[in-house]
Protein 1
Amino acid sequence: MSLPEPGFDYQGCLAACAQGQRQALRELYDLESARLLGVARRIVRDSATAEDVVHDAFVRIWTGAGSFDPSRGSARGWIYSITRHLALNFIRDGARLVPAGEEDEPVSAVSEQQPGFDLQARSAKIFDCLDQLEPSRRSCILHAYVDGCTHAEIAQKLGAPLGTVKAWIKRGLSALRECMG
Amino acid sequence: MITHHSDERPDELQQLAGEYVLGTLPGEQQRAVQARLQHDPALRAAVDAWEQRLLELTTLAEPQQPSPQLRQRIERSLDSLGSPAPSTSRQPADSWWNLLPLWRGLAGAGLFASLLMALALLLGDPPPATPTYLVVLVAPHSQAPGWVVQASDRQQVQLIPLGETVIPADKALQFWTKADHWQAPVSLGLVKPGQTLSLPLDKLPPLEANQLFELTLEGVQGSPTGKPTGPIQFIGRAVKVI
């Protein structure tokens, strides 16, 4: 379980980073590095590469803190977005060492609850909305967002045709948007 | 550079933004979205909303304790950066490295390499070994040569000024390289006008023919994004020396 630290002022932290206060970044590191590394590790599938991603993310948080715009979203969200997109860039550059589909997860039936996604006891709205999705669409969204899978990798994982996976993602996204507003 | 997407329906924009945040767009489309985000407020708003909607899914990834070295690595990288770049609320309208016509047009600049090779080799202090790659960096508009890059092996390059480059006091020159199949340029660091630099390329793939080198004008601390954001001052491609 990894939830944001309720008492921590993420936006204040970024403002302090923008002022050149190294201690602010250290506090952010203490608080978030393990979670960010977990997010990156899941996408790039390799601990050393994941550390490269988190390294780059913290450098970018530091150098970009001054350009953070709170009207565009939460400071914590910004930090996670930077990390995820760096991780996604890494695998798109062909740097993923373990190809998707070769790790422990079996190619499973579509309706099966995917291993690795424990949706129980999650209170955020997104989990309610995911719960309402058809299982195949839910799996697509989770494999893409959490595991950084491409359409083709998801198709392989779910044993479904590529076109079907694309349609599932499309409808899954529409349904999520409708559910979450 | 100006992209209009007036024929794009709102739900198409939402799909594009959603898939961008999911990470399922093909590489080229992903980069196209990244470029559009700089100047397309509707797309930016849609992407921001998706980032917020899906953010809690990051809690599904099991946290992992970083190695003790990671903190030190980050600290060292920040030391080498100095203080953060001054706050800039706006990015330039577009990233020049996404502009295909520019790259194509620059192929012609390679001609300068052959013309100026002799000149470069005559410039006093010859390097200890014969260079195997040579790049003449020219100003994009005037095509006036400003710097030479030479490599005597594929792991080390030298950047040599051919003249005096004048830049504003609150700016710095940042040196970049990009091979054809790389997705984006990689920074080789800041360069002072008139400075001769020797740089190891050991963190990068070996130098190859046609590899692009350029100097862009950035803030004094270098590009805040890790990618070129300022105008190109000098640019050229590597030519193998026979």
Protein 2
Amino acid sequence: MPERRSHSMPEALPGSIPAEGAVVASRLPVGLRRVPRGVDELATEHLVVNMGPQHPSTHGVLHILLELDGEEVIAAEASLGYLHRGIEKLAESRRYNQITTLVDRADYASGIHSEWAYALAVEELLGIEAPPKAQWIRALMGEINRLASHLLWYGTFGLDSGAMGPFLYCMRDREALLDILETVTGQRMMFNYVRPGGVAMDLPPEAEPMIRKFVAGFPRALSEFHDLITGNEIIQARIKGIGTIDAQTALAFGMTGGCLRGAGVPWDVRTAKPYGPYQQLDFSVPLGTVGDTWDRYMVRMEEMEQSLRMVGQLLEGIPEGEHMAKVPKVLRPPAGEAYACVESPRGELGIHLVSDGSDTPARMRMRSPALYNLSVIDEVLPGCLIADVVVIVGSLDIVLGEIDR
Amino acid sequence: MSEGVEPSTDAPRTTGLGELTRVGASELAGTLASMWAEGGFRMLVDLFGSDTGEGIEITYHLRDVGSGREAGVRCAVPYDGEVPSVWERFPAALYPERELAEMFGVRLVGHPNPKRLLTTDEIDGFPLRKDATLREHSELARPGIRRGGGGGA
Amino acid sequence: MSDPGRDIVGALAALALMLTNGVVLIYMLRKVLGRFHLRLGPMRVGWRGLLQTPMDVVKLLTKEDFEPAMTDKWVFRLAPLVVFVPSFAAYLPLAFSPTLRFAGLETGALFILTALAIIPVGVLMAGWASNSKWSLLGGMRATAQQIAYEVPLLLALVGPVMLAGSLDMTEIVLSQQGAWLGVLPRWYVIPQFGAFVLFFIAALAELNQTPFDMSVAESELVEGFANEYSGMKFAFFFLAEFSNSFIIAALMVTLFFGGWLVPFVDPGLTAPIAPVVFLVKVYLVIFVLMWIRATLPRIRIDQLLAFGWKGMIPFGLLWILSTGLVMKLAEVTG
């Protein structure tokens, strides 16, 4: 029985051989300042504290260990696995149409995108394509989901910095979006709506007026949000110049989404590897310059505006047709593998699916954008103050569900 | 739309990984280093393992963000075999390699922080291997838990 | 001078006011915050939630009052008292009307600040004795913050005191009667606007109130130094927080907003309702404090301390100098 310690860290994996001593600075990879060795439990002059897994910030069950010298962070390490449910293992014993309910619970804040990536992977294995109407509906629901996820991020970001008001204001708008999603898919969060071959149901007639009403009212709410946080000098003093992750570091750690675009790298799966109707839509991809918290914040605020634009275009342009292709009840894709990725609110969400010809997959791997976004903390947090830790982690926009799967 | 039984007959289906290279564990570091240096593949998109029945097959999915090219490197490792860590070229590998090691039982060499990522110390075995089976309801049954069709536990 | 019976009644009345204040202010905070956040606040317990706070008090009284192992027992137990008692003592000099006050103190304003200055000791005791790293960090931050902002608070106080010529709260209020040109009340907020701003900001920092509540409501600190407290000990901290805001608001109203004076009305006429006027003004100030709490985010601790030491103290000193200069010039030119 291990003795009780004030923080819990797993032991090193048996049989593993750690890196030799201290890696010489010249051999550090491009973009890194230090060896990401995690928190040193034996350094007695430093304080090792737990941030989480319970805390009032609603990132999910996030547990970060911080090695502190007074107020300054010396090292940081994420202790994950509190939400690990074995989704990849479960997927190996489920039929293809049952796995949709597994993947949308991984990233629960943006279920449509996870389901979409999975559906694209299965469709690639089957060699089919969803009908145009289904693709447009998927994009419409996807952009609505993106708005809902970004609103949640915005509210919790404000909460992290101490502003309680914006959190409730954004929940008001998010409720409108969740009502739309419930009208269309029947569920507020775990939709099980986007399925291989199309979408489960057609858009009901009640959905359109609700979406129009939201599109008409949201710009005012968005300007309110900008007044509350963006224009606030306290926030600006707290997040400008903090947590700078430049392009090299971001690419080195495999970051995608708002974090990568905040650093100035123009990689967006919707424009780089287009899927669905995105090639026919008119939208721009916001970019940052320096890669600090302010840039990541502004990129996501801009993305909300662009999403709103797209929702308007998508609503106008839905073609006629079927909402689901003719797929058999029990899907048996031929043996092969496929990797499909979508731009989820957090970044590039990919599903790598390996089929052996039976009705259950041989391997399903979920490329979680938040996992790679989070892995940067041991590089970017050292040197910051504790107060900055909360703000930086908030700006990464992580959801533990997809990190732990 | 097709019935979805036969794949389409035009271009051979790619894996979505781009060009796939298979290497052995000993050439892994060198191949990845040259892909980083000469190929311009600076981003590791994903790193994961798969139990093929004969061993563990590790896939490295690389990308050159500037041009959009993708490439894959696959390395077959025997059960409980060793695999060198590639974090010095691709720091994005830090977390996925830990997950690979705890889920499949391969041994990491040269990783600065080789701890478990998602599971706790108390589990036995390696969950994502094919011989690790999910438990049935009957296995969870113990005195006090109702057995029988469906309901119960 | 004053007979002991009168003193005891005064002290009990102050205690009663402090406790009633706590109950009312907690309810007011929850309702005000709720409305600002598009919520309703407490609605179920009693009519529109009016009984919520008394019920919360009952709950706190009946809660298990445990102490974590390995705390410094007596420091842990005394800390709430060291925070509570000075806060109670600071009620004594407050002037509610020309004749109504708990104790006649010629150095009232200074006494209040002195009492408030003892509180950081209690906070540090709480943070230390809790035997928890987060509590310690919270306690040290709170102490650093409160000590840093006591000086600007004091400097801001000097301006109006110079104009009034006395530290006695009643005198300060009485010197604000009348109006300039019959239009502007002689309240010190107008000639001493710089001191008012200084006082307001320093007050927010003293109260550990957003935007200066780094030490308390950090997203992972939860309650900062009072993390490990439960039951009645926690109630003491909680109550002291609200009674401090009353005291600071009362001080602000006395120094800058004419205390119990109603503008353009002869003070003799309003003497009967003076306490009501005073309380209304104090509650308005507290409302503004809650408004700020509901809206603004937090400043980081190092930015806070830098602003206090490098920004506010020089400004306060300059303000006092210029006030003195102006007063002397006015005296010389007659």
